[in-house]
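#help-structures
NK: newbie question, is this the right format to request a structure? protein is Endonuclease/exonuclease/phosphatase domain-containing protein
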Amino acid sequence: MNSHIVTLQESWAVDNESYNIPDFEEISRNRLMGRPRAFGTINFCKLNIEPRITDRIEIENGNSNNHETLLEVKDYIDESENILILGDFNHELKLGNQLESFMFQSFGIRLFSPRESTTNARTVIDGVFGRVEDYNIEVFIYESYSSHHKPLVVRVHEL
């Protein structure tokens, strides 16, 4: 796989279930408690990627209000020079929306992912936002046969 970061949304995984993708390490996982169900995000990073991921936070958004949840970590986002925020945002990103405007106005973060369907329902609710100065970010949508959501594949290249 010629990618640097892979994000799986609505993974149906649980905490004690592990996945082995050769040459990748799991860097974060959230909302995967109890029985398997259509929740959770798992992120994998290529083992030899430069720059290395030096810090990460996981956000559990039980109330579906992305704006409030992101404001809880505003200081962390503001202090980060190069930051990527990946996940299932449950906001339609096909035509731009309030979440995209909020991300740009509040944090100077823009959408890197394409405005193409990321689910079997043809919605664009999974995405990659970021503020990256020294790197070129490419995001691709990978076809999935095991999930309602399509995995996002991220490539990071130095400028």
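mod (FA): yep, format's fine, and the tokens are attached above. The chain is about 15% helix and 30% strand.
NK: thank you!
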